[in-house]
Amino acid sequence: MTDDAVIWNRLAALLPEAEAQEVKDFWDIGEQEAGLGLLVSGILGHQVPISETVRAQISVLAETWGERETLTPRILRCRDDGTSGHLKLIEDDASTDLEAIGGAEQDLAGLVLVPWIACMRCGHVLMRAHARESRGDLSYLAHHYVITTPNRATVLRLFPADSAGVAFAALQRACSDAP
Description:
The protein is of the alpha+beta class. The protein has helices spanning 3-12, 17-28, 32-45, 52-64, 68-77, 164-177; strands spanning 87-89, 96-97, 111-119, 125-131, 144-148, 155-160. The protein has six helices and six strands; from the N terminus they run H-H-H-H-H-E-E-E-E-E-E-H. Strands 1, 2, 3, 4, 5 and 6 form a six-stranded antiparallel beta sheet that branches. It is globular and about 50 Å long. The chain starts with a helix and ends with a helix. The model has no long low-confidence stretch (mean pLDDT 87).
């Protein structure tokens, strides 16, 4: 079983048994987009409290399956469990043009960094790097994922477009490895 499947099943287990099985079934038949919608609807409907780390993990899965924009408002409405986890979903409209980030890699030239998930312990921020479309909006899909320093001035790690989960795991690992 892949790591994503393990995470999927762990998140599904937050729901009552019948709904959890339905979410798992969506994974099994390759309908992750519908399964994510059901998961978030179930968490909201049953008022299941979740940690900020779980909220961030759901957002990463939603990003991976192209549902982040649709699900984010609902993910943010999920009830907080009151624990003080070290990760926080920071979805907002505050973006950073790369010209403001010193020493950014050539791969990021012309892209806009959007804050996404912050580590409250070390301050590192996982950001999505988007192109600015001709009409002024940001591209639907991220071109890269980036981990920056707390002040967002330095890129620490750069990940390709298909690596949302890997970038999230790196953010978690970096902080858990820190003294």
